[in-house]
């Protein structure tokens, strides 16, 4: 069976009604190439000495893994010279990375979590890369990007996606025309379209949450999960299954494939923080993908894509996946 390559898919998007700008097409291709390189390192593991931790911490106070830093470097180097970007931002960097001289600057901003699910790196469990593309403000007129330029609500994303380094290496992408999944043909080195128009069923009987935090949850989350756990004889009238990989990319990919709800809600461990996951390079790209696949994504109060960011590394409470379940747990938040 002859499959469509990522390049062909993107050129068709460029020629279609959505008229994907050529520079967005090119920068997605560069990100995809960088993910291929990251996947190569992930696949080598102990053979190339990339496992284990460094002594450094990132801006969030998390000890960096060697692969966090390697993946960040790969994405920066790959995307610096293409001429499509004005600046980049990452989970692993305190502040933004403007495109350095002598490279030309473009009209877009790229954000990424270079290696998500870091706690799974050393135990050979699936991990991923998450990315988001924003436009530079229209009045920027060639000036250098600032952090404020990145603080755009997620609904303004031009493209978003993730790479999943699992039994197969996959790239799951949206440019606002649905969600498409590409599988890396490792022999040929090309991304081939294998999952056309991915759709999340509105109903599900599977939830994903770190239940070791149960005692810290807010009442609406506790109520929702308790009702799922009550099974057939409870208010939901059906048995639920639970899955938690602790790699957001992998948990979301399962939901993209067969439905489910993923929650990393606010909890009382750090009452001052709105959640664990970061808005700009984790929650926003995933919410864009999930909505494009027919699902929903809220922070309990509002649609995540409508949250006005205040800071580059801002955190957010995340409830996303099958539409009816997300709406139910969101309604519980409104009831208090
Ligand atoms: P990371 O970006 O440092 O890898 O952290 C984000 C990860 C998500 O992939 C995952 O959903 C969550 O943290 C797991 O958290 P926990 O360790 O509480 O299970
Ligand atoms: Mg992450």
UniProtKB/TrEMBL annotation:
Name this protein carries in UniProt: Fructose-1,6-bisphosphatase class 1
Subunit structure: Homotetramer.
Binding residue positions for Mg(2+) 2: 113, 116, 282
EC number: 3.1.3.11
Superkingdom of this protein's organism: Bacteria
Biological-process GO terms, alphabetical: fructose 1,6-bisphosphate metabolic process; fructose 6-phosphate metabolic process; fructose metabolic process; gluconeogenesis; sucrose biosynthetic process
Major subcellular location class: cytoplasm
SUPFAM superfamilies per the UniProt record, alphabetical: Carbohydrate phosphatase
Keywords: Carbohydrate metabolism, Cytoplasm, Hydrolase, Magnesium, Metal-binding
GO molecular function terms listed in the Swiss-Prot or TrEMBL record: fructose 1,6-bisphosphate 1-phosphatase activity; magnesium ion binding
PANTHER family found in the cross-reference section: FRUCTOSE-1,6-BISPHOSPHATASE-RELATED (PTHR11556), SEDOHEPTULOSE-1,7-BISPHOSPHATASE, CHLOROPLASTIC (PTHR11556:SF35)
Localization per record: Cytoplasm
Domain (Fructose-1-6-bisphosphatase class I N-terminal) ranges: 5-196
Cofactor annotation comment: Binds 2 magnesium ions per subunit.
Domain spans labelled Fructose-1-6-bisphosphatase class 1 C-terminal: 200-333
Pathway involvement of the protein, from the record: Carbohydrate biosynthesis; Calvin cycle
């Amino acid at each position: 069976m002859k499959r469509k390559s990522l390049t062909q898919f993107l050129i068709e998007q460029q020629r279609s009604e959505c008229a994907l700008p050529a520079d967005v097409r090119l920068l997605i291709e560069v990100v995809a190439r960088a993910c291929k390189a990251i996947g190569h390192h992930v696949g080598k593991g102990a053979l190339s000495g990339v496992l284990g931790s460094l002594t450094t911490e990132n801006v969030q106070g998390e000890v960096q893994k060697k692969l966090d830093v390697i993946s960040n470097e790969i994405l920066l180097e790959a995307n610096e010279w293409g001429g499509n970007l004005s600046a980049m931002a990452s989970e692993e960097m305190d502040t933004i990375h403007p495109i350095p001289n002598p490279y030309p600057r473009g009209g877009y901003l790229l954000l990424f979590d270079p290696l998500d699910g870091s706690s799974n790196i050393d135990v050979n469990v699936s991990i991923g890369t998450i990315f988001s593309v924003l436009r530079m403000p229209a009045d920027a007129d060639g000036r250098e990007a600032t952090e404020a330029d990145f603080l755009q609500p997620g609904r303004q994303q031009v493209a978003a996606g993730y790479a999943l380094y699992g039994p197969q290496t996959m790239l799951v992408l949206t440019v606002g025309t649905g969600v498409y999944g590409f599988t890396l043909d490792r022999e040929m080195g090309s991304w081939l379209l294998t999952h056309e128009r991915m759709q999340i069923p509105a109903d599900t009987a599977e939830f994903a949450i770190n239940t070791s935090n149960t005692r810290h949850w807010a009442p609406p989350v506790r109520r929702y999960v308790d009702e799922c756990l009550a099974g057939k004889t409870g208010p939901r009238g059906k048995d639920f299954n639970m899955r938690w990989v602790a790699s957001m990319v992998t948990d979301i990919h399962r939901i993209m494939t067969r439905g489910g709800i993923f929650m990393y809600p606010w909890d009382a461990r750090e009452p001052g923080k709105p959640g664990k996951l970061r808005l700009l390079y984790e929650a926003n790209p995933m919410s864009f993908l999930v909505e494009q696949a027919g699902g929903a994504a809220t922070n309990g109060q509002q649609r995540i894509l409508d949250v006005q960011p205040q800071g580059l590394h801002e955190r957010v409470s995340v409830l996303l996946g099958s539409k009816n379940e997300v709406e139910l747990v969101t309604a519980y938040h409104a009831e208090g």
